[in-house]
Design goal:
The structure is a homodimer.
Chain A lengths: L3 E6 L3 H13 L3 E7 L3 H9 L3 E2 L3 H6 L5 E4 L6 H10 L3 E4 L7 H14 L3 E3 L7 H11 L6 E9 L22 H12 L4 E9 L9 E8 L4 E7 L9 E5 L2 E5 L6 E6 L13 E2 L2 E2 L11 E4 L9 H11 L9 H19 L4 E2 L3
Parallel strand pairs in A: 1-2, 1-4, 2-3, 4-5, 5-6, 7-10
Antiparallel strand pairs in A: 7-11, 8-9, 9-10, 11-12, 12-13, 13-16, 14-15
Helix pairs in contact in A: 4-5, 5-9, 7-9
């Protein structure tokens, strides 16, 4: 079977990451060429041994090219994706796939028309921290999960390059927000029944850079996301509460733990108020240690290259597509509503 | 100056706490008597040396009584408060002052008519953890504060006694929710411009017992509250982010820290993506240690008895009232909207 020939359009930070990653880990795909409007980026691709095209038309006219990865600023995704599909190419697009759901619907229509593959590089579905949470939930280790916090706190205060510009589709909701929402909607195989968002522009004028996002799923689960850029004491990456236990992943290194209720450890209640450090309270009095057991986090070892391996499997007819545009459309529908909810002061306007 | 004579109406867990607390710490007030419809509670008051009335009418008819503290289930607050004010008594009411803002407006009308004192026992304004946060914010140690998390996680899974019944005004929003909202609105001397709430009934049917509350203040600050009852790994009690630093209070013992940006510690940026444990990212790459400094938390020592000391000061004409019904009305307006936001699926209905 001949190799799938890949060309990368947009050879900036993520573009060159795609090249290295595929070259080292996905033998089914040949990283053949690149195109970038910036001469220095093109030069960088040439140094890495890639064939450098001098126009997008030249890429699309090259019949030997099977697959295009689009890694340009977000506002150019739609047009390039549609042109590439119409030229008969299979297409991978960096996230966010588009700036809104309407743009994505245009792409999906062309995908349907052409029958080519279209997928989005939601690489963080293979993040180890996320997979630990998913494994724990799917195996029922926590019982029914009803409160989730998914938190990513940086401390450099800035959005970089074009990500700091509204017209390029910059801002945190369209950057990390897309990843965290995609993870949330992969974790819960359920309808999203309400959304809200608090978007603040603190350090990069014109785009949201410190944000809280809120989802409620059909089962009632309350799911909170935070992305911030000037946090000097980090909260855990994940905190997940279920009817039978609580899971915490501390950080990217994936230290953490899972505490479970012991099934038969009976608690004796008294009707008296308990005098705790919190003052008189029964509700918040501590639970005896003997009613709980600590378990290690699930042992999982995902790898981002699995994304491209799946693409190769789909093109070779042996696998079905993992990251579909229909999934991305649900995420973009949520994002559209979040921008509206924020602009209209969310849930209810008031001035109390 | 003669002592202020106090009678406690409702001598359950909190009622007897009021008696002890005032007796030991507030010499200006004499804890004289009690009334409770339950014979065993009345007997308990008698054993503690209090004069036990045999009806509420008898309490209200006793001209020697200056001050009534109401510590009965929430649904009885309004009627007793109004009767007591009309009988010429000064009145302290346990929180939540009423079940909704309309009930409180009725009380305020009678307070205006009678000119007597009416206050709400928002004792948690004197919690040390809260005062640490307030001191840090008021002294500007964090710069402008724009993200706050106020989290209270219990693990016993239950709401106790009448607090588990809707008709008594049970549930977490009207219990701890009132405290955390009052603290939030004390911390920010600003209008609340949006509210949302995710209320779940997980372990006590009929009342909300595991809840997320969301406020946005006029300056844009996003303020999240959580109260949960089956959490086996606790998040910090407070996490507060400002433009110049981050503060964390770990728990009721008030361990924690404050990290500040060093004013002149310049950071050198590169335009390259940083390869972190989180993958390729500039935004979330770590900040060098030398750009930050760790400070101890502010050293504060509030005491709940200051609430009653202020009441005595007001009645003796030397102080103005700290906890006013007008403040409580703002909190109850927020609570009313939160119940609506939850029932109507908050921000925006959707089914994505």
């Amino acid at each position: 079977m001949s190799k799938i020939r890949l060309v990368i359009v947009g050879f900036g930070g993520m573009g060159s990451w795609h090249a290295e990653s595929v070259k080292n880990k996905v033998p089914e795909i040949e990283v053949y060429g690149a195109y970038d409007i910036r001469p220095e980026a093109a030069e960088n691709a040439r140094k890495k041994g890639l064939f450098v095209y001098d126009s997008l038309d030249a890429v699309l006219a090259d019949e030997s090219v099977d697959l295009i990865t689009i890694a340009v600023p977000n506002n150019f995704h739609k047009d390039i994706a549609i042109r590439a599909l119409r030229a008969g190419k299979n297409v991978i697009c960096e996230k966010p796939v588009t700036l809104n759901s309407a743009e994505l619907e245009e792409i999906i229509a062309v995908r349907n028309e052409t029958g080519k593959l279209f997928s989005i590089h939601q690489n963080r579905r293979w993040d180890r921290d996320f997979r630990i949470v998913k494994e724990a939930k799917d195996r029922g280790l926590l019982g029914r999960v009803y409160m989730v916090k998914s938190i990513v706190q940086g401390s450099r205060g800035a959005m970089y390059g074009w990500r700091g510009h509204k017209e390029n589709g910059g801002g945190m909701l369209l950057d990390w927000g897309i990843h965290l929402l995609d993870q949330a909607m992969q974790l819960f195989d359920e309808k999203v029944v309400s959304v809200d968002a608090h978007l603040q522009s603190m350090y990069t004028p014109g785009v949201d850079d410190n944000i809280h996002l809120f989802l409620r799923f059909e089962s009632g689960c309350s799911y909170i996301m935070e992305m911030s850029t000037n946090c000097l004491i980090n909260l855990p990456r994940w905190h997940v509460q279920g009817t039978e236990g609580t899971l915490q992943v501390n950080d990217w290194s994936c230290s953490g733990k899972l505490m479970k209720l012991k099934p038969n450890a009976e608690m004796k209640w008294t009707d008296d108020i308990v005098y705790t450090e919190a003052g008189p309270t029964r509700t918040m009095a501590p639970r005896p240690e003997y009613t709980m057991v600590e378990l290690p986090l699930p042992d999982v070892h995902p790898d981002w290259s699995e994304y491209y391996k799946n693409i190769a499997g789909v093109l070779n007819g042996t696998e079905s597509l993992i990251v579909t545009p229909e999934q991305a459309l649900r995420v973009m529908n949520v994002v559209d509503l979040m921008f509206k909810a924020d602009a209209e002061r969310g849930a209810r306007k008031c001035c109390i």
